[in-house]
Amino acid sequence: MSGSGGTREKSENANAMWGGRFEGGASDIMAAINVSIGFDKRMAAQDIHGSKAHVAMLAAQGIVSAADAAEIARGLDLVLGEIEAGTFVFKDVLEDIHMNVESRLAELIGAPAGRLHTGRSRNDQVATDFRLWLRDEIDVVLAALKDLQFALIERADAASDYIMPGFTHLQNAQPVTFGHHLMAYVEMLERDRGRFRDCRARLNESPLGAAALAGTPYPIDRTMTAAALGFDRPMNNSLDAVSARDFALEFLAAASINAMHLSRLADEIVLWMSAQFRFIKLSDAFTTGSSIMPQKRNPDAAELVRAKIGRVAGSFTSLLTMMKGLPLAYSKDMQEDKEPVFLAVDALMLAIAAMAGMARDMQPNRQAMLAAAKLGFTTATDVADWLVREHGKAFREAHHIAGALVGVAEKRGCGLEDLSLAEMQSVAPEIDERVYAVLKVEASAAARTSFGGTAPARVAAAVKAAKARLLAEEA
Ligand code: ARG
User: Fold this and answer.
1) 409 contacts 418 by C-beta, under 8 angstroms
2) Does the structure show a pLDDT above 80 at 352?
3) Measured on CA atoms in the order 228, 229, 231, 236, is the torsion positive or negative?
4) Mind listing the pLDDT tens digit for each residue in 392-413?
5) Dist. CA 137 → ligand 1 center (Å)
6) Phi, psi for residue 206 in degrees, rounded to 5
7) Catalytic (active site) residue 169
8) Cα separations (Å) of 280 from 362, 441, 456?
């Protein structure tokens, strides 16, 4: 054998599966750039299920004999058994999962194996495998997201009346409840699950039987194979069937948005863990220490969840760029479609699991949240609303008065509730004792009873509704 970059002798090295017209073997570099078994073996089970559906259809249509089909199906089960047992030997020289399986099938059952690839191509085969694989993974992601929603709902339920500062611009804005804050993420995750479900519904069409690109002269039954594999229907156009990868892009787009949501919550966990916030504690289970600073407890899991968006959105960009400008139908570029999706799925699953773990682990610090809610004059809006309600002021004027009160308190270095009535009346003489009730952060939150608002009663109802909605879904 020649060195790197040389060609090999045909006798041993011309590809056994497609090498009919080839004189010599591939150069080592060619083999290295061409090989995909290192990653596409991840679709082994789907490849075998697809082949079993295909050969059953070939027999039903009289394209192969029932005896050969039975032998092929038996052999495919043996191959699957070897793969599951970890005894299957994956060979780089056989390039990809499709040819590894078919070659082993031939070793196990001999001649009938050669009839399996009738009326199909690796182009429709790989598209079929990939859709089946992604469909399975979407189901796993959907279940994991639902688990995370339950974890957040439980946490929100226990903290539906914990008062914390709500922020805009990361400045204290108005008091909200911790439960309300967590339920906001439950809503985001609900839309994320909707996107994954939409993606699953759209991808659930069968490319199998499109063959290389143009269809096949054999009297195949694509509806039969589609049904056997749980697809809703065969894809309409054979060129589209072998060249479409928008299903994977749609998944990656949904995954990117989901990872972005997880990243936002992860960032809040990092903030809440800090000495400046102290809103939550995470146990040893989801934190690490420092090798130099003995006092440290670092929120590494949250930071890593915050970071995973990089891989996921990077995968979307990677596949989108790869597909851009590709002519119809199949091009080998498309072999590079799988790794970004595998990478994204792995990153997302880990991020969702870590987030669910942290949601269950976190201990909210009610006192710290309450103390923080009182900082930054968070009830100034309530004073303005009170002037409108009780004294018939126009909101603009009331806003002005409340702003002036904040100015006085700021100068004195105290909260609004610490101002004496005389001090308040020097700003607006009509202010009376009753104003102190609306200056309380608890009252501020409790007053926000509008639909979707932060009042504890609203949050408790939202928790109940979300729980019922999730439980009502079929498993
Ligand atoms: N390993 C290939 C892929 O992942 C399978 C399809 C190969 N088709 C071909 N015409 N060479 O895309």
Assistant:
1) yes
2) yes
3) negative
4) 999 999 999 999 999 999 999 9
5) 22
6) -95, 125
7) yes
8) 6, 20, 19
Task: Please say if the pLDDT value at position 68 is more than 90.
Answer: yes
Is residue 291 annotated as a catalytic residue, yes or no?
A: no
Q: What is the mean pLDDT of residues 444-453?
A: 96
| pTM attached to this predicted model | 0.93
Atom 4 (ligand 1) nearest CA: 335
> Over 90: is that where the pLDDT of 333 sits?
yes
Residues 232 and 127: their CA atoms lie apart, in Å, by 15
User: Each residue of 117-146: b (16+ CB within 10 Å) or e?
Assistant: bebbbbbbbbbbbbbbbbbebbeebbebbb
CB neighbours of 351 closer than 8 A, spacing ≥ 6?
259, 262, 266, 304, 305, 308
Beta-sheet pairing, 233-234 with 205-206: parallel
Q: How confident is the model at residue 2 (pLDDT cuts 50, 70, 90)?
A: very low
Residue nearest to atom 1 of ligand 1 (CA): 96
Q: Are strands 163-168 and 171-177 parallel, antiparallel or unpaired?
A: antiparallel
